[in-house]
Amino acid sequence: MTHQPMITNFRAPIQLGKRPSNTPPSRGEEELKAKLRGAGLRPTVQRIALSKLLYGNGDRHVSAEALHAEAREAGLQMSLSTVYNTLNQFADVGLLREIAVQGPRTYFHTRTSPHHHFMDEVSKKMFDVVDGSVQFASLPPPPEGMEIVGCDVIIRLRPKRKG
């Protein structure tokens, strides 16, 4: 899998629909379109709008529900299933990293390089573990005909109990 460059510090108004023909696209929007095309995805209106939300706030962890709420707050009209489908498509082509946490709960991370996470079980927020701070003496051998391609660690947290 090739590493996709992250777009940082991108913030522009999010609007669905066509831009007036005499208005050029923003530099950030062109970067997003190029990023989508480079990953083999057509830059649809919905994908561009969700990309602006995802990459407009730097490195972040997001659930489909949270991104859908952000989209609605930004005045975007799209279904939760559209958000789920888009996030899964982005993860399939390496634009996002999918993090399955517990049961049906899944997060997506704009940082796609291998790393581990803390999960606050009360707030349901995720945080990156400092790179290099988790080490393994060994891993079990994989089943016959399989190879290990990665190892994801989620360290669960909760506030300390008083007393």
TrEMBL record:
Superkingdom per UniProt: Bacteria
Keyword Zinc among UniProt keywords: yes
Pfam families: FUR (PF01475)
Residue spans crossing the bilayer: none
Annotated keywords: Cytoplasm, DNA-binding, Iron, Metal-binding, Repressor, Transcription, Transcription regulation, Zinc
Start and end residues of each stretch annotated as Disordered: 1-29
A GO term for molecular function: DNA-binding transcription factor activity
GO CC aspect terms: cytoplasm
The keyword Cytoplasm is annotated on this UniProt entry: yes
GO BP: negative regulation of DNA-templated transcription; regulation of secondary metabolite biosynthetic process
Main location: cytoplasm
Compartments where found: Cytoplasm
Protein family membership: Belongs to the Fur family.
PANTHER family: FERRIC UPTAKE REGULATION PROTEIN, ZINC UPTAKE REGULATION PROTEIN
Subunit and interaction comment: Homodimer.
The name this protein goes by in its record: Ferric uptake regulation protein
Species of the source: Methylosinus trichosporium (strain ATCC 35070 / NCIMB 11131 / UNIQEM 75 / OB3b)
